[in-house]
Amino acid sequence: MYRTHTCGELNLEQLNKNVSLAGWVQRSRDLGGMTFVDMRDRYGITQLVFNMEENRDLCLEARKLGREFVIQVTGMVTERSNKNPKLPTGDIEIVIETLRILNPAEVPPFTIENETDGGDDLRMKYRYLDLRRPTIRKNMELRHRMAQEVRRYLDSQGFFEVETPFLIKTTPEGARDFVVPSRMNLGQFYALPQSPQTFKQLLMVAGYDRYFQIVKCFRDEDLRADRQPEFTQIDCEMSFVDRNDVLDAFEGLAKHLFREVLDVEIEGAFEKMPYDTAIAEYGTDKPDLRFGMKIKELTSLVQGKEFQVFDSAEFTGGICAQGCAEYSRKELDVLTDFVKRPQIGAKGLIYIKCNEDGTFKSTVDKFFSAEELKSLADQFHAKPGDLILILAGEQSSTLNALSELRLELGTRLNLRDKNTYRPLWVVDFPLLEWNEESGRFHAMHHPFTSPKMEDLELFDTEPGKVRANAYDLVINGVEIGGGSIRIHDEKLQKLMFKNLGFTDEDAVEKFGFLMSAFRYGAPPHGGIAFGFDRWVALFAGLDSIRDVIAFPKNNSGRDMMIDTPSGISDEQLKELNLSLKY
Amino acid sequence: MYRTHTCGELNLEQLNKNVSLAGWVQRSRDLGGMTFVDMRDRYGITQLVFNMEENRDLCLEARKLGREFVIQVTGMVTERSNKNPKLPTGDIEIVIETLRILNPAEVPPFTIENETDGGDDLRMKYRYLDLRRPTIRKNMELRHRMAQEVRRYLDSQGFFEVETPFLIKTTPEGARDFVVPSRMNLGQFYALPQSPQTFKQLLMVAGYDRYFQIVKCFRDEDLRADRQPEFTQIDCEMSFVDRNDVLDAFEGLAKHLFREVLDVEIEGAFEKMPYDTAIAEYGTDKPDLRFGMKIKELTSLVQGKEFQVFDSAEFTGGICAQGCAEYSRKELDVLTDFVKRPQIGAKGLIYIKCNEDGTFKSTVDKFFSAEELKSLADQFHAKPGDLILILAGEQSSTLNALSELRLELGTRLNLRDKNTYRPLWVVDFPLLEWNEESGRFHAMHHPFTSPKMEDLELFDTEPGKVRANAYDLVINGVEIGGGSIRIHDEKLQKLMFKNLGFTDEDAVEKFGFLMSAFRYGAPPHGGIAFGFDRWVALFAGLDSIRDVIAFPKNNSGRDMMIDTPSGISDEQLKELNLSLKY
């Protein structure tokens, strides 16, 4: 036995007890007659004392301890004269009797503190040291806690955890698959799942009624800042449900997590907002409802005033930033630069300042009378002191730019408090979206999403207008999860595949097993999948998922620590009958 | 809302209530004036009644319902005149007012009952129907329950669940890896983990102290009857522990599962048995302790009696089957055929019958006097009525054959009760085993296993005699899990790699990150991994893991339902710069 206690639990209750501890040297201070060592483990920090007068040899040995040495000590719990109220163990220290170095340590390549001097690449290479930093450890602890609470809750609600396979079949829809060559079936491949979608539907056909799994999924995509080739999903499915049954069930889960993990009580039902409203009022399908500042469309109101920008724009819209009329030229320039960034791509920014004296000052004074400006301001219920910001251009990109501008202002005005949570269900998404490149419709969610039954006849006339019985959970502007009621009828599934441009052969080859399953008694069903990494990041107050993943990959899909992907042996290639050339 | 209740919960408490239910038609009986339908869901079976006199149209509709149709009904809970005490809902039936067919069903290709007429291939192809059979559903429910209890217990003991990556690095040791070509790093591959071994050790270096995960692992092996290319492990690791700390912790887990899942109380500490003893007394490193019948070595006792078989044998040993002296010639022939099967490979079987009258009858009467036979019988403390069975030959294959024979007799004599559990720790395995083919030592567990410190000096003289600080948990002859104290010292790890015939370059290329981690403060640590599929199968009373896995693969590694592995498109191959020819 290496220890009687951890470094986080001793206090005055154990006074004068003999204890043994094991852990890492966080830091050591040599004050002449005394040497103090802060010893760390996962549970906390405990101060060790070595006394030169009482035990010279031991004290000299202690002075040689370097940062991150692993040691084991025995000694007596003693009251500290100089207490540290910030530490749970701050009332005591251990007067050391024996010291054993279990493993020495080289000087780490960066400091093991919350504020470290290690750059990203260095920290990733030595991730096992990075994970020692308290801030990262707390993220992992949060992730652990959330995973336990997710399962505890879903188990209590009768959900079955069922493991679905990882070696599955490549599918023609969605992102690119990672594939796995089969040695026993040469020339053939498995694919790693992008999600357990078809399996969870088959579990519903199997009558399992309520299914969940916290499961790794894989997408071979070019990685943007916040994407990982492997990510974790809370994957769920229910039978004999309509949309509101699903939303109620997972509102329950979300409230449970808020309560148990963050100690936050979310009152009342989550707001529901149709996709069209979200786009019109917030310019995005994942609005941050922590603040208002809704977008107003001004297109027809501002046309015919000889102002070319408005007259030629497909869409003009604006937002009202309360109390910002005093923004300086420089501040407005910063906002203009913000919307003109290539990622946002607006041509320019038009403002109307609602001065405290009731007058208006605007970029477009030349084209609009004071009265006309006032009537524009009234659209926003703007008050003296408010600032109206207007963008014009192609509709969807302008709405997107307004959304980004709104979020930027929300941040600047401190309207996006990290401790305020505003969950929202976005519903009634379009079922299909036109893809210019392929010249056909793609499924906005996936090809198993049910259309809204009242929109079925639109398939013949305007397929783009058919709404999906789909929903996303958005919290504070972050999409935490999404799902839908699924198709459970073979004919409707065939119609859907047809609209997606699948040939019958394609459909049978890729999803024959699902179509066949629908013929043997498939219940109505629906479900949802949550991005677990993202949900943990949200609860951790982080923007990136990287720091809630123990061993993440970089933007080239590489694990810098173990240095993978890497070459494989000729022997392995030969066994798989593969060569490295197309 | 499709239902107010499930098919498993109604009883007399809901008498005269109007309810709605949804589920599958299990069977329907048409008794002239009445039609009875058994309706099934995950939760149970409820009887529906349609009355010809009261509602002719509805009753006629009900008569058209086929097996496995999905229906929704409303009606009133009524007391049954003919109660069924076997069903929790057997006191009531529902007099149906409305019936809606949610989805019709074709006649299933096999019966959805515990005893089905479907063969293995057919059931695997339609696994979603096979999963409907109550016996399989109960296995899945057991698996769910066990997974929840594993996590609940380990969480309560301070273990962190940490997800380790699936896209890792191919390793030179162990079984064959599945590899995943990288599109972003052409010519390079990830490997799927055979276990998270190195990552869990790095989590210990990171100071996470106690880690667990229920996680999929992958091995590209030629599949024997009870192997799957993907399987599930309960993977655990602890810091600052010696062997007994680990055994205590996981004895706690095992006892918790026995208690919570099976309602079985295991009293006292689990027995510990050195590997050498297990081999000597049971002929196997996973002895079934539900019965005795230990192997006794007879080699030197039986030599010099002119019996060529014994005289030329490296090893002679036997077991004593109590009360079997009356076995007929035919029964003995069956046992002889059993040990002569190619899988076992004994040349023949020698017996000594201890007759009730104190005399002996034996295959070797010619060579052994009655007194000599008695002294052999005394080795086994045989009593009149017992049967001694003896095998001779090469040592390890003979011990193995004796082990198989012992188990066979245990089964025949009903000594292997499925409701009796005898857990055992097998300890002190050899560290290395000689591999004739490669002409070098291989790690018996894996190259990170610590030798027993007292055996270190044997490395120089007899490496094959070095014992590992390793342990297996064996229950009723099934190896449920295994683990070890790990090496945490860079020098010892290097020595180990050297003994395994790794060059320094190999070691650095494949495990450089781990060697490097050992230099920055690695704590002493150890752990264990349990075969979750096998543990569930044991608790389910099944010999095969196939029926505790929702979507298993067959012996060629194929999923018959989704028909994978399968071809991939030229476009996919091109993107990966691969061609299907070595």
Describe it for me?
- With 582 residues, chain A is of the alpha+beta class.
- Chain A folds into three domains: 12-103, OB fold (Dihydrolipoamide Acetyltransferase, E2P) (Beta Barrel), CATH 2.40.50.140; 137-273 and 423-548, Bira Bifunctional Protein, Domain 2 (BirA Bifunctional Protein, domain 2), CATH 3.30.930; 291-412, GAD-like domain (Gyrase A, domain 2), CATH 3.30.1360.
- Helices cover 29% and strands 24% of the residues of chain A.
- Chain A is built from 16 helices and 22 strands.
- In chain A, a hairpin with a 2-residue loop joins strand 20 (470-475) and strand 21 (478-485).
- Chain A is globular, with a radius of gyration of 30 Å.
- The two termini of chain A are 58 Å apart.
- Chains A and B meet through strand 1, helix 3, helix 4, strand 6 and strand 7 of A and strand 1, helix 3, helix 4, strand 6 and strand 7 of B.
Question: What oligomeric state do the depicted chains represent?
Answer: homodimer
Strand order of the largest sheet of chain A: 6-9-10-22-21-20-17-11
Protein chain pair with the most extensive contact, residues per chain: A-B, 127 and 128 residues
| Radius of gyration computed on alpha carbons of chain A | 30 Å
> How many independent structural domains of chain A?
3
Largest sheet of chain A: 8 strands, mixed
Low-confidence stretches of chain A: none
The CATH superfamily of the largest domain in chain A is Bira Bifunctional Protein, Domain 2
Arithmetic mean of pLDDT of chain A? 95
